[in-house]
Amino acid sequence: MAETFVELVEEWQTGAFFVVACVIVAAVFGVVVGTNVGPALGVVAFLATGIGSFAVLSYLLYGR
Questions:
Q1: CA separation for the pair 57, 54 (Å, rounded)
Q2: Which pTM value belongs to this model?
């Protein structure tokens, strides 16, 4: 938990970066899969990549 206001803002900025980065990665991967395989798999790839990239980024920053 953040002890100061500055630390709280830094945590929110990190969280916002995670969300934006995950959406960008998922959108790119979803579009690539959607155009090459099919729209239904593009949506599945978008969702799976979004969740997976968030898990990987969280693990890299916060550890276990």
A1: 5
A2: 0.78
d(CA 50, CA 58): 12
End-to-end CA distance of the chain: 17
> Using N-to-C axis directions, what is the helix angle for 5-36 and 39-62, rounded to 10°?
150
Residues near 35 by beta carbon (within 8 Å), at least 6 away in sequence: 42
> For 7-45, how does the pLDDT look when each residue is reduced to its tens digit (9 = 90+)?
888 888 988 988 999 999 999 999 999 999 999 999 999
| Residue 53 CB partners (closer than 8 Å, separation 6+) | 21, 22, 25, 26
User: Within the chain, where are the H helices?
Assistant: 5-36, 39-62
Q: Do residues 53 and 44 touch, judged by C-beta distance below 8 A?
A: no
